[in-house]
Amino acid sequence: RTAVLSSAVGTDERTLGAVLTGQLARRPDAIQALAEDPRGDHRAVTAPSVQLTLDGPAGQSLGAFLGPEASVDVTGVANDYVGKGLSGGTIVVRPPRDAGFAPGAAAIAGNACLYGATGGRLHLVGRAGIRFAVRNSGAIGVVEGVGAHGCEYMTGGIVVVLGPIGRNFGAGMTGGRAFLHDPGGVSGASIATASVVIRPLEPGPEKDDLRALLHAHAAAGSAGAHAMLVRWPAARAEFVVVEPRPV
Asked: pLDDT tens digits, residue range 126-147?
């Protein structure tokens, strides 16, 4: 059973989700009242699940340290450090329908998203700033473009980038994997080749993992991901993989 809490959000509200995760970790029954069923009975909740549905511009550190019992869904934009220390939760940020810009052509979140994340998933239906997934050790991130220093010092996890990347991508990366949509073959100029290698997408589980993440991203509201799935055989050939250089 999932309790859904809806609210407007503003830039002065920071680290949304961290306190909730702490409460769920300390006392699984802390939100028992939120799981009230239609008959008015309060059921015991041993593994509570809470979804925060927000509307507006979120402040810094949205979903920081979010655990597996919680998710944050924002229609709007977000500031820096989205998913900082993400620890198993799910975060989605998408633009409103009347945003006036194409999601894949504009930034929807700030810098250092997924910094130090250890698990969970982030879907940004739009681009992010610099240092996306720096020191990520286990989370999954799907984004439609990133600035400089993406996946810097990454030690684990998966990142999917459906748009352009900035310079120095993958510098110091020692683990994990990144899937880049690179139809023009231009990403190599931005890759930190001293740390990572770039290669074609392999058939089998790797291809299936990417397709599943595109389905999830399309479900989050990405028209770009949906378009790739519609022409999947051709789109699949446009992806490359970035991973640490063998020692």
From this structure: 999 999 999 999 999 999 999 9
